[in-house]
Amino acid sequence: MRKFALLILTIAICWFAAFVAHAAELSGPSQVAANAGLSLSLSGGGSGIGDATFYLFGPSHVSKRTIKSGEPIVIAPEETRTAGLYTALLRSGDAVAAKIFYVTPAAPRALNFLARPSRVPAARPGVISGVAFVFDDYKNLVLAPTPVKFDLAVAGARAVSRDVPSQQGIAWVRMDSGRTQGAAQFVASLPAAHIDGQEAASVRRVVQQVAADACNLRIKAQRTANNIVVETDPVRDCSGNAVPDGTIITFTELDSSGRSTVDARVKRDVARAELPLSNDATISVASGVVVGNELHIGGAQ
């Protein structure tokens, strides 16, 4: 439809040029807001024009109707809901009058909001990004700078807010993930003051904040008749969040007979493993690249 409208507009302008010697002028505003509508009037050589055919060409709208002599030329609001360049033509016989005007977006009323990613580790700088697109009620991108507010919060933690002015209809922000794991509410909103005092338009997205890598690993060991039982203290990340069940914890035993390694999964906050019995061994613990404390099991134990 847009390509067809542009084609018709091009033909109309060429047609207007062909009759320029007989042209009158249509007078009226050169710029209006979307859905505002406008009125045009004849001036110049068209004062004596009779019944005429009126054409309106816009980015997504083409119309044609008859205008009786002396009748006002009114363009209804619904004919100017799409922002862009419009051409109005009035033809009676060989006489042509024309007016080119521009429709700008109306006041900002709505947002489209994208947030990435949907799952992030806690306490990571700049890991969450959000992009908001500002529109009016008629789906026109509002190019004028508009303040957009971004809020990020997890239940029980203090919200973080940023005010970002849009540029060419787009506002973009990068935020740190919070220190608390949980479903973070990421909200983009338009301040009410910029939408004629009405309730602020807002869009909500959820970013799941999960525990980061294990931190400050600590273990304890107990010798039994057949093996050495090792167990971690509750495994947390550096912000104090419990790491999820299933996280791999690696226990390593080093003694005169060599090295023994056991991978165990965290279950209910702790990981537990059984290592070969030894009279003189060093036991260490790690999770990924995070290394915990070491224990020495001596012959006297």
Folded structure, characterized:
With 301 residues, the protein is mainly β. It contains one helix and 25 strands. The strands form six sheets. Strands 1, 2, 3, 4, 5, 6, 7 and 8 form an eight-stranded mixed β-sheet that branches. A five-stranded mixed β-sheet has the order 10-16-15-12-13, with no helix packed on it. A four-stranded antiparallel β-sheet has the order 22-21-24-25, with no helix packed on it. Strand 7 and strand 8 form a beta hairpin. The longest helix is centred in the first third of the chain and has 17 residues, at 2-18. It is rod-shaped, with a radius of gyration of 35 Å. The relative contact order is 0.11.
Proportion in helices? under 10%
Oligomer: single chain
SS field, number of helical segments: 1
| N to C succession of SSEs | HEEEEEEEEEEEEEEEEEEEEEEEEE
- Count of DSSP E strands? 25
Main β-sheet, in a few words?
8 strands, mixed
Termini distance?
86 Å
Task: Give the integer mean of the pLDDT values.
Answer: 88
- What is the radius of gyration? 35 Å
Which spans have pLDDT < 50 for at least 5 consecutive residues? 14-22
Percent in strands: over 45%
Helix/strand/pairing category: mainly beta
Morphology call: rod-shaped
Features:
mainly beta, 5-stranded mixed beta sheet, 1 helix, 25 strands
Tell me briefly what this model is.
This protein has one helix spanning 2-18; strands spanning 24-27, 31-33, 38-43, 52-57, 62-67, 73-75, 84-92, 95-104, 110-116, 119-121, 128-135, 147-153, 160-165, 170-175, 182-189, 202-210, 214-215, 219-223, 227-232, 236-237, 248-255, 258-265, 272-276, 281-287, 290-297.
